[in-house]
Amino acid sequence: MAGRKAFLLRIDPSLWSALEALAQRELRSVNAQIEFMLRESLTRRGVQPRTSPAEVDSPSKNSD
Description:
Layout: H1 13-25, H2 30-44, H3 54-57
């Protein structure tokens, strides 16, 4: 996972459950789902992330 920043995220269990369910429906890991949603939110606000959204847009078989 070269070039990725790891960090600890404390999150409410009910929010985690909702993210987990959404990620499962969209065939992503929870980590990929969070990254996808963050990129989507930044893009809507006119901020372009440096890396391609296609990296996180592809389905993942990993589960978090």
